[in-house]
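Protein modeling request. Please complete all fields; requests missing the sequence field cannot be processed.
Requester role: graduate student
Desired output: 3D structure, C-alpha cell encoding
Chains: 1
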Amino acid sequence: MPEAQLDRFLLNVVIDYLPTADEERMVRQTTVPDEPAIQPIFTGEEIRSIQHLVRQVPVSDNVIAYAVRLVSATRPANPAAPDIVRSKVKWGAGSRPARP
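Delivered output (100 residues):
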C-alpha cells in the first residue's frame, strides 16, 4: 500500500457479529433488486460555489502552524512526537489532516 494511504488505517476497530435479526435485515436490505431513489441535494455548480466560499474563510498563520505541529506529532520519527507515539505508532498522519 502506498505510504500516502497508510494514515487511513491507523486504528484496528474490532466489531463483533450482528445479532441474528439485525444480520437478516442487513442481508435482506442489500440483496433486494430495488434501488433507492437518489435525490440530489446540490448541483455541480452549487458544490463548486460552496468550495470557493470555503476557501475564502481566513485562517490565521498561528492556527495553520498549530495544525501542522499537531499532525506532525503523530509521526514517530518526529522528535516532538510523544513517547507513546514513538513506541506504538508505525506511520503518522500525512499532510491532509492539517488542512483546515
